[in-house]
Fold each of these.
Amino acid sequence: MELVIVAAAIMLGLGALGAAIGMGLLGGRLLEGTARQPELAAMLQGKMFLLAGLIDAVPIIGVGISMYLIFVVAPGVA
Amino acid sequence: MATETETFDTSAYISHHLQNLVYGKLPAGYEREGYDGHHEILEHAEWTWAHGSEEAAAMGFNAIHVDSLAWSFGLGLLFCLLFAAVARKATSGVPAGLQNFVEIVVDFIDSNVKDMFHGKNALVAPLALTIFVWVFLMNLMDLVPVDLVPKIMEAFGVNYHKIVPSTDPNITLGMALGVFILMIYYSLKVKGPVAFIKELSCQPFAPPTKGPAIILAPLLIAVNLFMEIVGLLAKPFSLGLRLFGNMYAGEMIFILIATMFVGGISIWFALGGLLQIGWAIFHILVITLQAFIFMVLTVVYLSMSHEDH
């Protein structure tokens, strides 16, 4: 049982780490781009949301799987 | 009020919510446990409703997720009928009400497709509109309170019911497979079979065509083929799994918050309600974004299969 929870923790942690780096780069570049060319702000923001959704997907999938592990699989193997 | 037999089992509650309503073929010799507790052994393979996840697993390939199919077809029909009704009654003056909304959606999709799609194809914009609205409607079912429809169906004797079709990988991967077939079809049609195979085998490492290095060409072509085919197959797979994963995780969190309500009217009840509302508001962003991403990636992939190098 403990190993299932450790697995879920690793899944959540590494997923969050990768997504945080990605989001940081994305947001930073968006601000840089908008500061350089404010007239492109609307277009850049639209693309930013699209990419944010793409980055968000993998950790969210990780959250789903780890929730399943913690609340359904872990009580079963205890 | 909880007696010894009625204690709340969180993992059983979650599993119950994640189980589709399955109609399928049980193999011969399968030992069935009835609701009244007595066992019977099937003499012949039999088409029947599954009583729980074990029977659904025993059905293997011959299992139909009736609830996912019914809800997704119903929502697709709703989209078609609604948009067709608005289109038939459209006026050229200042649009009002529903027509306004439909025009905004169509305009939004049209401008996006014009930005992203560079080939010539009359199918892509309607396809994008269908995918966007259909996936959005399927995702929208996530915002219906998790126990509402299953409890109503239970009153009619249906024991399992999942109302969000996009939390079923069969639905999302099925849609992705449809997109994949279109990608292959247009690659073969627009580029031609020769150019398509050349694109798969001569990138990213161009094989040498003259000199002694030509003996390396088959090796490079094999490496290219492997990499490009993996890349090609990864597209529909990631497309379907991304939508499924996001909706599954969202649904999972709704179900987990719903387990807080068993505490009765207490601090947990109020906190659970607040969390449910908060997550639902955040989820409005996620469902729209995922529908939009599914549509954008479909258009981008189709655009790639229309491009000649």
Amino acid sequence: MQWHSASEFFAMGGYALYVWGSLGACALGMLLEPWLLAQRHRRILGTLRLERLAREQDRKD
Amino acid sequence: MSKFTEVFYHYASPSTFYPLAGKAQPWFAALAVLLALAGMWVGLIVAPTDAQQGEGYRIIFVHVPASWMSMFIYCVMAFWSAIGLSFNTRLAAMMAQALAPTGAMFAFLSLLTGALWGKPMWGAWWVWDARLTSELILLFLYLGFMALQAAIDDPRRADKAGAILALVGVVNVPIIYFSVKWWNTLHQGASVSINKSPSMAHTMLLGMLLMALSFWAYSIAMSLWRVRSIVLERESQTEWVQDAVA
């Protein structure tokens, strides 16, 4: 363990902006991508289900 | 046909690959989270302060894995492009397409974290150095691949054009990797290489490798997820997709 206090940890020896900026950017990107992918997949499944319903309706008519 | 090629051809069909990718994807995602937690613990809590760069060096735990993945994903993309071109398999081209956005993100993160590291250590966010410039070209190759695929309406033609771009661009990957040796650059040399022992403390190396494995599992999870969306979009007229969404 390198750290004596939480504030020392967050200060990162004066490099807080650079270290936390880098880690934050990666965390942001790597959370945003799965979120966008989940939305995309849901949207496609939704469209395909609607098309299927429409086809079934057509067959009944 | 040998057992191996039989299995290979079986899963080369989108209809059999789709459920397999769906089963594998959450496991790789979970693995990525666990490895990232372990890697961040080792990297931020356990690893010692660097003698030269103080705490600023801790950017390495995301910068190096992101850079490695940006190069590795491009090679995998070129590999699937080559398979797609030679065997004319639909799924291979879809894999290449699914990998590009994740690779582009890692190339961008590599440049961004590099800028955030360069500013305090070199005094500049950006320099036109061989390593940085070739990594920027990698980002443009990813974006060019994605734009080219999006610009061509016929998916099979888009696959072929994208595959050729991916294969031509792969020459840039060794240029990035060896740039620190071939040119006199500001960027430091490799901290880890195959033929000499790593020039860093064991805990630093462990943290970096854990993060690299985490980014690797993340990339597999994301590309499997994206390829499933692509499969559904492209195969939407087939019977198996219509059964799958029932």
Amino acid sequence: MTGYLVLLDSGKREVPVEVQALGPHLYQVTLGGRTRTVDAFQHDSGSVSLLVDGASYAVLVDDRGRETRMQVGDSVYPLEVLDERRLRTRRPARKFTVDGRQAIRAPLPGRVLRVLRRLGDAVQEGEGLVVLEAMDMENELRSPKDGKVVELLVEDGQSVEGGARLAAVE
Amino acid sequence: MSERRRIEKVLVANRGEIAVRVMRTCREMGIRTVAVYSDADRGSLHVRLADEAVHIGPSPARESYLAADKVLSAAVRTGADAIHPGYGFLSERADFNRACREAGITFVGPLPESQVVMGVKTSARRRVSAAGVPVVPGSEEPLADEKEARAFADRIGYPVMLKAAAGGGGKGMKRCERGEDLTALWQTAKRESLSAFGDDRLYIEKALERPRHVEVQVFADETGNTVHLGERECSIQRRHQKIVEESPSAIVDPDLREAMGQVAVNAARAVNYLGAGTVELLVDARRNFYFLEMNTRLQVEHPVTEMVTGLDLVRMQIEVAEGRTILRQDQVTRRGHAIEARVYAEDPARGFLPAPGRITYLRVPGGPGIRDDSGVYAGWVVPQHYDPMISKVVAWAPTRLEAIERLRRGLAEYHLHGIATNTRYLRAILHHPAFRSGDYDTGFCAAHAQELLPKPDPSLEEVAVLAAAVTQFRRDQGRAQERAARGGTAEGVGWGWARPGGARGWGGGEP
């Protein structure tokens, strides 16, 4: 019997699960106080067929490293599965906050089309700071909070890598 | 047809799905193909498919796919007798068209003069208007400045549309509701127009209420035979970009189709059109229609027309370029209903942020009546430099509702991992009552934005968790077995022997 902890909603919800092998693709799974037999046949790296109480589910497994996106029908559940070892080494989840200095980063590589604000400008939450062009499309990056532009690290026309720090608001 | 006009080798001056699409027909016709590619596209599907491939420069399009001289010299060097420009990039550049002809290479498309007239919206409107084609009331010429614009807008009445004279594709286009907004919108439209087309001339049109965007496919050969192949309804748009197209349109009956078709043919004749073209029309709530623009190239959504008419438009383009004749209007038949959905590498949950990156897994739909025009494969890295459209999934069925259900089924079979796509968003559009009723206009996506964002079904979460836990369990077991096979102790001891073939089997010896 192996125990796992499945994290849902970016770690806001935790579901303990226990799995035990019964046969080549037959498992006994305990989840939410209920134990049942699951027939799981893995087709390939990206999909697994689940037979649960006679119902057949084609589940898609999109492994993105730490996070896995499981898709059943039209529903996608981004989740993380922790085993005992990873549970022990897990750092406490960082709380989402907009306190203090907030960096604005390029969500993907591209070119800065226009810088909309100057250093020291007062900005409101949701106001555009930088227009980034990527894949032929313009994307406006907005301020996550009310405050002042305290860092401005790019200029018009500059190419940036994904994740690059562009500006900060405090 | 004279022998010297025969096309034996085509250079496809494009990338992605359309380059693949054109090459497929070339292969069927026994025509050899030449691909051009940028740094980012060395591994691209169109390079894999072509008989020859020429590297034309760095990844940014303006240094490769838009570099007319590089593309032309690639054609000369490889001895291609024709260039197919696809859509976008150089496809509507009259100067490139002319340069091809001067170099003795057939440009698969209309004459440069047709592209010159249709390339500037104001001259296009003047020309077709003179041929009796209805146009949306608007300014005859680009407006000199904001003052002139304001005077004109006051005269025809708000709301008005500010449009780029050199424009197309919704760039540099702004709807202005009231006089107070004109100054700001005039500036924005000018700036966008300059950056998109290198030309900041604007003109004004009266804005229509609840407009639908319906376009007519036309085709013409050298003998002057000009036919229309029916309409495509393209009102499902996001930020002025079409994402779902269908034929027939729910608002077009046989009489309206005939009237629109005749107007489209007249517009094409007004510029001595040759080959495949599309006349875009705006249709108002009372089913009055007006000329919007003419696209002087193959259209992204051409498969919709192909599915309904049974024709291969790329084959017809090449045949016209060879000087052959096309079918007569009375030979055009239409059957059933076709719908196309554009699959984009973008994340609807994050404001449709483009999602370049590696495709780690791909399974595409099949079965009755489904066509997948794709430019990607599993393992391919979708580059950040180009349009994020990766595929078009098209469904054909005898009736509209069957076609809708078929396309929904096809999109559910579209399994792509590693990057985000809009397939579930597209399914939500096809499922929406307003779409299914056929009563929708270009405001559909904005009006229903919230309803179209897919939310997970809580009843299926348990299945997802079960699958995730079992998958992890299997993975852990696999690793444990691997460790056991290695003797369960320190790595290295005996490990070289456990590997099939063994390190020595490759005849290397120690380096």
